[in-house]
Design brief:
Blueprint: E1 2-7, H1 17-23, E2 27-32, E3 47-50, H2 65-78, E4 82-86, H3 88-96, E5 101-116, E6 132-143, E7 149-154, E8 162-165, E9 169-172, H4 180-189, H5 203-207, H6 210-229
Parallel strand pairs: 1-2, 1-3, 3-4, 4-9
Antiparallel strand pairs: 5-6, 5-7, 7-8, 8-9
């Protein structure tokens, strides 16, 4: 299998997705948006991973490449690729599938639990996960569910944390791919985001519990293995 990633900033890479892909024999290619890499031809990849970043999906006036990226992501969905969007990537998926991305009622930054929906228990992608599990967050915006999407998870701060569209398009508002190295970079570069709030942890709180990173890595592996196992949606069914 061939996995391609859209990476928006240097500090938010594939994280724990990369060793998972290597262990399973997948090849990895990356478009680095901050240096102007070209996106690949549609027939050159099987998986598309759309990663996070500090920008908004609504920043097209400031970041003209966003419009082209959205067209590329929509084309990947229509071609029946397996597509995973994380944080900003989830919001891009929501928008290209017909939902809106709007400011969240509060910033959510740090380790907080998400709760599975009833629908997620019947999902082959999320069905093996606990009813409630702790994940890493760093976001100030949220998405509306696009038409045809199945809501999989929510949190106290943010109602829509994950959705499945068709059988092979998965959006995750949170960061199960997080590693300690990525978290350290986010804390170092995101000090201005760490204001007082009910769902904002300090840098020390985010970095102080090593087992959290190991557990998140396990959640990411389960999700990716489950998504690998499901039968792909045909392009005509993904619309």
């Amino acid at each position: 299998m061939r996995l391609h990633a859209l990476q928006h900033v240097p500090q938010e890479g594939l994280g724990s997705i990369q060793p998972w892909a290597v262990e399973r024999g997948h090849t990895i290619t990356v478009t680095r948006q901050w240096v102007g890499d070209a996106v690949p031809a549609p027939d050159s990849f099987d998986w598309l991973v759309v990663l996070g970043g500090p920008m908004s999906v609504n920043d097209e006036a400031k970041l003209p490449w966003l419009e082209a990226e959205k067209r590329f992501v929509r084309a990947a969905v229509d071609a029946g690729k397996r597509v995973v969007g994380i944080c900003l990537g989830a919001q891009i998926l929501a928008e290209v599938l017909g939902g809106r991305v709007v400011p969240a009622r509060a910033r959510e930054i740090g380790w907080f639990p998400v709760t599975m929906t009833v629908e997620s228990r019947h999902s082959r992608v999320f069905g093996t996960l606990p009813a409630r599990w702790e994940v890493f967050h760093w976001h100030a915006e949220t998405f509306e569910l696009p038409p045809g999407a199945i809501r999989l998870a929510g949190s106290e701060a943010c109602e829509n944390q994950a959705f499945l569209h068709g059988a092979n398009v998965l959006a995750l508002q949170f960061h199960p791919e997080i590693t300690r190295a990525i978290a350290e970079e986010l804390v170092r570069g995101g000090a201005d985001d760490l204001l007082d709030g009910p769902w904002i942890q300090s840098g020390a709180e985010m970095l102080g519990d090593e087992p959290r990173f190991a557990k998140s890595r396990e959640w990411m592996r389960r999700i990716l293995d489950s998504l690998s196992a499901v039968e792909r949606t045909a392009p005509s069914e993904a619309r």
